[in-house]
Amino acid sequence: MKVLLFGGTTEGKATSNWLDDLEISHFYSTKTSSGNYESRFGQRICGAMNVEEVCIFCAENEIDLLIDAAHPFAEVLHHSIADAANQADLPVIRMERDAVPRIDSKWIQYHHSLVSVLTDLQSQKYAKILSMVGVKALPVIHKIVPNSNIWYRILDFPSSLEIAQKAGVDMEKVIVSDAFEGMESIEDLLVDEGIEVMITKESGYSGLLDQKMDLAVKHQIPLYVIARPNLPNYDETISNRETLQKYLKNRFGLERKELAHGFTSGTCAAISAKAALNLLLGEDLQQKERIALPDGGICEMQLHQNRFAEDFALCSVVKNSGDDPDITDGTEIGVRLKWNDANCIRFVKGEGVGTVTLNGLGIPMGEPAVNPVPRKMIAFELKQILEEYDIDRGIDVSVFVPLGKKLGAKTFNPKLGIVDGISIIGTTGRIKPYSLEAYVQTIQKQLNLAVLNGNKHIVVNSGGRSERYLKEKFPDLGDLAFLQYGNFIGEMLQTINASGAEKVSMGIMTGKAVKLAAGNLDTHSGKVVLDHEFLMDLAKDCEYSHDMIQKIGEIKMGRELEELFSFSEDEPFFKALKSKCIDVCMSLIEDYDFELLLISNKGDIF
């Protein structure tokens, strides 16, 4: 199988990583040769291609699939890809970044083009304007509205400053920002200068659109948003490794040879930090960087970004988590370094990395959520280089994850008192497919926090739905007392031993209970199938009729048992099911009181 992948974006690099892990031969097409690219099964091709050239390339190279992972605003390219796919009779799929949801607010206005925005701004006669559209649009804006009082936020590239100077704008009104700085300095500008209107692109979370929208609503300043162009029709739209693999299996019958391993966010940060310090010390730009892992191995990664100025350096990588279902797989993780006068290595807040607000995590309150092992990894790499150069200076380390604020809300971080971002984690540096390492670490942290804050009664459950039901049953317990085990029941129960917890109430819904009762302490659907024979034997022991036992043999999901039996503690089948679950759990429990609560899909509990 051969794939033609149109990239030049973080999404493009991530897709290439996934194709590598699947051992699929592919071409990675970008307009220019800028940016690093290296792949085991991919080959880079540079230069713009029109529809005819795409068709010829596909025919000559026997391409089976087109993937469009180009920038959302590359409108001409999107339609060229779709037209070529149609003419060559090839399937085409879109790798799409997460879009910031549109909100209904009088302070947010969407326009189809920059010209439309500028026309409206002129008609409204705004005196003070802040442009956050990007440097490529700067000359256009300055030409159309040359006499307006406009501040321009541009990224800290020498080429960007050159464009601004050539356009003839007042350089005192050019705000040079790092790509991964938050909006704090912009908020100060809004207040200090009395900005009346802002303009930006619908660039997504990586462009901090959500933060710009928040500022507009908070300060009641209109925000004009240039909307994403309409995309053509695709055979499928994917957003992650899992959806890509599912498509390839359904469309091409592609089966995995073996599961791919990956690397932790701590490893990504350590590699980025090492590369950034070399840049800060004047070394040449490198395509790749390598570090030693805590388990004794070596990891080498391709650098995604590498930039430097007089007083800072910045490098990043695109994370490859392998086949582990990791929320940060395919995201950019990087480090920005700057010298400090404290003569030590300090970790300071970076975009998308959470802030610790509770004690008990092994990280000082108020500091970024970079866990102890990643901190040691980063510090070790930096100290090695400083010693080599015989330099005695301090460094501020700012780890950033552009999508981190959005992703952090989907993790356990809010329960751990980590706000506004993800955590940089990892103990070995590697990620094994479907390993328990990260999950068990999270369980341990939550448990430590709960007990440290006086919670002797812990309530464990499989997820958000069952937790809602259990919070109604235990209204006097605080949020920290509720922990989620997901599928890892055995690991949760063993972790609680010797934790200081005195009582554990475990909630479990019928679908997982039938797996647990059969002796499965890991209830993941990929590992455990519904055991009809076990359930039919259970019903026989309860002396149900032959017809009822046969009906059990026909169900497809455990929750269908609630349609066959009355869900109550007096119903023999559910009574026996609960007893079996307790027997399995008690084999792991050492020093705390335990009760099991069976939960129906309607929220009934006994």
Automatic annotation (TrEMBL):
Family annotation (Gene3D superfamilies): CbiD-like (3.30.2110.10)
Reaction(s) this enzyme catalyzes, per UniProt: Co-precorrin-5B + S-adenosyl-L-methionine = Co-precorrin-6A + S-adenosyl-L-homocysteine
Molecular functions (GO terms): cobalt-precorrin-5B C1-methyltransferase activity; precorrin-6A reductase activity
Pathway in which the depicted protein is active: Cofactor biosynthesis; adenosylcobalamin biosynthesis; cob(II)yrinate a,c-diamide from sirohydrochlorin (anaerobic route): step 6/10
EC number(s) stated in the UniProt entry for this protein: 2.1.1.195
GO biological process, one term: methylation
Pfam families the record matches: CbiD, CbiJ
Alphabetically ordered keywords of this record: Cobalamin biosynthesis, Methyltransferase, S-adenosyl-L-methionine, Transferase
Recorded family membership: Belongs to the CbiD family.
NCBIfam families recorded: cbiD
PANTHER family: COBALT-PRECORRIN-5B C(1)-METHYLTRANSFERASE
Name this protein carries in UniProt: Cobalt-precorrin-5B C(1)-methyltransferase
Species of the source: Labilibaculum manganireducens
